[in-house]
Amino acid sequence: MASFPSTQNSPLLTNGATEDKSYLEFPDIITLSELPKERGWLSEHVHQYRGFWYPTGILQGLGALQQQWFKPKPDSVLLASYPKSGTTWLKALLFAISNRTQFDFNTHPLLSSNPHELVPQLEAYAFKHLTNPTPNTCLMHSHLAFNSLPESNCKIVYIFRDPKDVLASCWYFVQKLRPKDLPFISLPEAFDQFTKGYSPFGPFWDHVMGYYKASLEYPKRVLFLKYEDLKKDPIFNAKRLAEFLGHPFSLEEESKGIVDRITELCSFEKLSNLEVNKDGTHTGFFIPTIANNIFFRQGKVGDSKNHLSEEMIEVLDEITKQKLGFDLMTTSVTPQQNDRGIKPDQNQSN
């Protein structure tokens, strides 16, 4: 199968002159000072590149990936998401579904490892391995916008979530990870950046639509999931994921309750109460030590109403309707297209 159409190679992005000879591998170098920048949330700045706002370190990794040094395995799958859209849950589900014949439920890696240890973030890994930026795994994850992804034959599973819950979850997450030398960002300040589109990896709505349109053009290559649908019917969507990956659950597996056991293993309640996720830590690519429990706050649909003002909620709902063209909270979606671009899914089937 042909790969996605390639975008022009992105140059390595640096702060200026450097003595690191690895940079000589890149044919073009653009300094960060040439890119528009805004205040970052977990880094000093985010920089606008190809219409999206990326933290400095992410741009370094992106530069390596765009140099055609990305060499995924033939059956690699890329999980994509805007931050705090259900990434941890999707990582666990896809890892369990993809490896269901390799591990039993009593000694499963998810019982002793955080999902983020098992499924690496592509651009963060690339930041640490500039000349060999491909993780040695079949499952990878990315927060990059679709137009920033390196050319590949990977299948892509994208999950999106109500932006109100995304914003609330992002803000609380940032407070737990924010380096002490960075100034505090208030929720109103974060709201202002988010709605204007220059929050990290934003604009949120453009991020969503990039993958949605790709799912219409390449329906066998890009699966578009809604977090709220996954919460409503995890068993149906686990089967949908397995089918998309080309490894549907057999009748024997279903009769043995394998689907139910996978969704139970990957549930918020199960994962958040595991010792490894309550008290454990893992090594991050940008932050030396990350507490696993910061990835498990609420996992609820609609919790943002307890944190955002009524005015914030109204503004976000209005932007969503204008940008996406449908009511996020009342519409289920599948990769089907009509005149408005997104079609309600009446029976939650492909």
UniProtKB/TrEMBL annotation:
Gene3D superfamilies given in the database record: P-loop containing nucleotide triphosphate hydrolases (3.40.50.300)
SUPFAM superfamilies membership: P-loop containing nucleoside triphosphate hydrolases (SSF52540)
Ranges of residues in domain Sulfotransferase: 74-324
InterPro entries for the chain: P-loop_NTPase, Sulfotransferase_dom
EC numbers for this chain: 2.8.2.-
Domain of life: Eukaryota
Protein's UniProt keywords contain Transferase: yes
Record keyword ATP-binding present: no
Keyword list, A-Z: Transferase
Family in the record: Belongs to the sulfotransferase 1 family.
Protein name per the record: Sulfotransferase
Species name: Datura stramonium (Jimsonweed)
